[in-house]
């Protein structure tokens, strides 16, 4: 499964904005060892249901530790038996764009 999620404090720290809290969430994801990618809007993580959801929970808890209210947006592509899709989906689109 691939999960795209965004977690952020509902109220930003006036000195650090949201970036300090979001950086802690991204650190949790990167330290998980699961395939992941972060862009301007979401962090994507790939793995089995329980391990991915555990990472999302820990990332959310990292933000909640510095904010009394936390926002979480999550989208999941649940496709049992398929791995390597984080990169594979993009590669297929790129091949089509290149005319192959």
Radius of gyration from the alpha-carbon trace, in angstroms: 15 Å
CATH class: Alpha Beta
What is the helix/strand order? EHEEHEH
Provide the spatial order of strands within the biggest beta sheet.
2-3-1-4
Tell me which oligomeric state these chains represent. single chain
CATH architecture: 2-Layer Sandwich
Low-confidence stretches: none
**How many DSSP-defined strands?**
4
Our count of domains comes out at 1
Average pLDDT: 91
Count of DSSP helices? 3
The percentage helix is: 40-55%
From the spread of the alpha carbons, the general shape counts as globular
The first-to-last residue Cα distance is 27 Å
CATH T-level topology: Alpha-Beta Plaits
Mind describing the biggest β-sheet?
4 strands, antiparallel
Residue fraction in strands: 15-25%
What structural class do helix, strand and pairing data support? alpha+beta
């Amino acid at each position: 499964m691939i999960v795209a999620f965004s977690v952020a404090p509902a109220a930003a720290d006036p000195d650090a904005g949201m970036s300090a809290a979001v950086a802690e969430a991204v650190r949790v994801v990167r330290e998980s060892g699961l395939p992941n990618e972060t862009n301007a809007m979401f962090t994507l993580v790939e793995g089995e249901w329980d391990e991915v959801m555990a990472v999302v929970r820990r990332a959310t808890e990292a933000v909640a530790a510095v904010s009394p209210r936390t926002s979480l947006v999550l989208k999941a592509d649940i496709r049992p038996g398929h791995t390597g899709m984080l990169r594979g989906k993009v590669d297929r689109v790129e091949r089509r764009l290149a005319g192959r």
